[in-house]
Amino acid sequence: MSTPPLASELDLCLCHSCGMACDTTGEPHECERCGAPLHRRKVNSLARTWAFMFTALAFYVPANLLPVMNTKMVGAGADSTIMSGVLEFWEAGAWDIALIIFIASIAVPGIKFVALTLLLVTVQRDSDWARKERAKLYRFVEVIGYWSMLDVIVVALVASLVKFQALADIEPRPGILFFGLVVVFTMFSAMSFDPRLIWDKSPHNEEVTDEVASH
């Protein structure tokens, strides 16, 4: 059975912005559809992925320790962190909202941190262990990343639902800002990882140079 040619052998390059397969035989070397510069591989994929993930981890600590909202009921106010908010909703009988906040705020970021660390370590160790499963894991990380903002959305919805002027009021606190930064940087981390490194025999060779179509 003959092996199909590689995209590089056909002078084809996939645009990282819009996904279009572009011909790199001529000038200029930018996407014909969106105008983005063409790279055969994501530039400095491992270094950028580690950097974004460590940044997200740094923001994850204050996101869980600082209050995310302040609830005032008939003049009496109280700050709530993510976990205390989950417990309050659960005790109030709103188990569905409590479950959404817990999954979006605690479970999803934790899963992403563990999954990205596993992908990065195995690629750097040039491991051939479970390559197909790791590729599926990366796609799973990409999918769940877009649902991480559910917590921010829930806080906004709750604030609009219980805002009864003098009777009750809910205001966001700094914790929600840090959590939003966690979501953004974990998404950047997942987007920076090049899943083709999973299949490379020597992934470090792909990280050394910025493989532009040609200069």
Automatic annotation (TrEMBL):
<protein>
    <submittedName>
        <fullName>Paraquat-inducible membrane protein A</fullName>
    </submittedName>
</protein>
<dbReference type="InterPro" id="IPR007498">
    <property type="entry name" value="PqiA-like"/>
</dbReference>
<feature type="transmembrane region" description="Helical">
    <location>
        <begin position="97"/>
        <end position="123"/>
    </location>
</feature>
<feature type="transmembrane region" description="Helical">
    <location>
        <begin position="50"/>
        <end position="69"/>
    </location>
</feature>
<feature type="transmembrane region" description="Helical">
    <location>
        <begin position="176"/>
        <end position="193"/>
    </location>
</feature>
<dbReference type="InterPro" id="IPR051800">
    <property type="entry name" value="PqiA-PqiB_transport"/>
</dbReference>
<keyword id="KW-1133">Transmembrane helix</keyword>
<keyword id="KW-1003">Cell membrane</keyword>
<keyword id="KW-0472">Membrane</keyword>
<feature type="transmembrane region" description="Helical">
    <location>
        <begin position="144"/>
        <end position="164"/>
    </location>
</feature>
<dbReference type="GO" id="GO:0005886">
    <property type="term" value="C:plasma membrane"/>
</dbReference>
<keyword id="KW-0812">Transmembrane</keyword>
<dbReference type="Pfam" id="PF04403">
    <property type="entry name" value="PqiA"/>
</dbReference>
<keyword id="KW-0997">Cell inner membrane</keyword>
